[in-house]
Amino acid sequence: MKTRVSGPFVLPVRDIVRKPGEMREHRIVVPAPERWGEGIVSVEKGRELDLDVRLESVHEGILVTGDVETVYEGVCGRCLRDLAERVEVEFQELFEYPGQEAADFEVQDDHVDLENLVRDALVLALPFQPVCQPDCPGLDPNTGERLAESSGAAQQAPVDPRWAALQEFTDPNGSAR
Ligand SMILES: [Zn+2]
Hints:
It is a single chain. 12% of the residues lie in helices and 33% in strands. The protein has a domain of 116 residues. By secondary structure, it is mainly beta. It binds zinc ion.
């Protein structure tokens, strides 16, 4: 019997293949094999991924349901402060038995490989505009300094560059404040 390469995301299904109704559960901790995510936050290589997975044998294949929990790192999109946040995301996919048409996810011999499934679920869950806190005031548009935590009163909202021209237009003297 041929043995394929196995990796940390490979789970055996030999004992439940073609036995609809059978189920196995796995709890595994796997290091991220590489940096996942192209944005300003990502899951760093080696970061522990906490996986809870249920494998259910169904007529068409193995239904994989689970969740992954880990930490992403990067910087706040407004103030550029370093941040690290926990993220937990659920996933589900049917790994089909090999048939005439190739499926995106297939049962391979006696195992399923969850790497692509887990990576895609996690990468999609990473925020495009991460913030260190919901009301992060960001940077001062004039000085580039980090603005103080919102203390109220004198603080001006940073001007979106797209509106700056409009503001000049409506306020030609720039002295209305
Ligand atoms: Zn921030």
